[in-house]
Amino acid sequence: MPPVRRPARGRHVVTQDGDRLDTSPDAHRGPDTVIRAGAGAKTRQDPKRKALDVRVMDGSWPATFWMPAPARLPTGIRVYAIPDIHGRADLLQAMLDAIDQDMRADGQRHQGAVAVFLGDYIDRGPRSRRVLDILTNNLPDALQCVFLLGNHEHFLLSFLEGPSDPAGWLFNGGLETLTSYGIDAPSSGFLSVSCQDELRKALLNALPERHLVFLRNLRPSFRLGGYFFAHAGVRPRVPLESQALDDLLWIRGPFLTSTEDFGAVVVHGHTILPRPLVLANRIALDTGAHDSGILTCGVLEGGGLRFLQTSPSPATVGGGPRPTPYPFS
User: Fold this and answer.
1) What is the arithmetic mean of pLDDT over 6-30?
2) Is 158 helix (H, G, I), strand (E, B) or coil?
3) I need a surface site. Which of 187, 260, 294, 312 has the fewest CB within 10 A?
């Protein structure tokens, strides 16, 4: 087969089957971007390696082999799915360094690598501004990126656009975001209209233009091969192309308890678990990075799956043990 052709950064990935994946901002307009899977690559051995404080994880800890995945990707494509970062710029940078090293593992960069960020970049953690700096200006050159909208970015955008529920955002992690931009935040739950207006103006003045453009161009979902990527999940029995934004950003119960086939395997964050979970119809990746210090990245290629994880640091987080290897189910 011909080699994968490397596109200009941030525009397209061309698979060995001739399919083309558009990752440009102009493509981020809805949940219906699809690439049909071609013949899948065989799963292969992955050498042991370490990158800073990031470990390769699977049931044998550390991983030496890919494990079976519940869906397939097009030939020549590898996906790094990264869930809720929540202001933990330290963990994001460590993970990006590990991904960069992972792409170099065979002696050359993996030319069909796509990072799908699942939303909730901001709030709760201390360095939301730095997270957006990294995502808008400091990513590995060989990595094509897709950025999804999370409920916390939606919170912030709603606050900027006018009357909303500012306390709902500010006291659900928004205070830390304001502080990261150098804005003095209120300490009580009551906000007068004038105070809301002052905070809105202060945040608009403090947000770099590239941060605002980034936030306004986040897409609600993304589909590739046998996978559908969304921040929170999907509503069962609703076609993937017809999912409501509120469900993509917020859903829990009906989605988490469903054993139905959604039309694709859903890769999501939003709901915190002590370790990643793999089921026949979904893959859950949020391990509560802002508090646990554990940021999990799902690595998908062909019909295989493995994980990269940061390890908690007692010096920077409140604690919590490293997750035990999870059962594949």
Assistant:
1) 37
2) helix
3) 187
